Amino acid sequence: MMKWIKPLMLSLTLSLTGCVTVKLENSARLIARPDFEAAALAAPEWTRAALKTINQLEERIEAGQ
C-alpha cells in the first residue's frame, strides 16, 4: 500500500522544479532614485553608458548565458 508514496513524492518534486524566468530591472530601479537626475546632469555620458551596460548584462542573464 505504501509503494505509491515514493513515486508520487518523486514526481511531485520533479514537477515543481524546472525553468525559472528571471526579469531584472536594475536600470529602472536606479532611474527611480531621487538622486538620478543630479547624476545624469553631472555625467550624462557616463550615466548613459552605465545604464546601457546594465541593460546588456541583464539581457544576457535573462537569456541564460
SS content category: mainly alpha
Look at the structure and give the mean pLDDT.
Answer: 82
Largest sheet: none
Strand proportion, as a percent range, falls in under 5%
Rg (CA only): 22 Å
What is the H/E string? HHHH
Shape: rod-shaped
Instruction: Say how many strands there are.
Output: 0
Number of helices: 4
For the terminal residues, how far apart are their CA atoms?
A: 46 Å
pLDDT < 50 runs, ≥5 residues: none
* Proportion of helical residues: 55-70%
Notes on the structure:
By secondary structure, this protein is mainly α. It has a domain at 21-65. The protein is built from four helices and no strands. The protein has helices at 5-16, 26-31, 36-42, 44-63. The protein is rod-shaped, with a radius of gyration of 22 Å.
Topology:
Elements: H1 5-16, H2 26-31, H3 36-42, H4 44-63
Key attributes of the depicted protein:
mainly alpha, single chain, 69% helix, 65 residues
Summarize the structure.
With 65 residues, the chain is mainly alpha-helical. 69% of the residues lie in helices and 0% in strands.
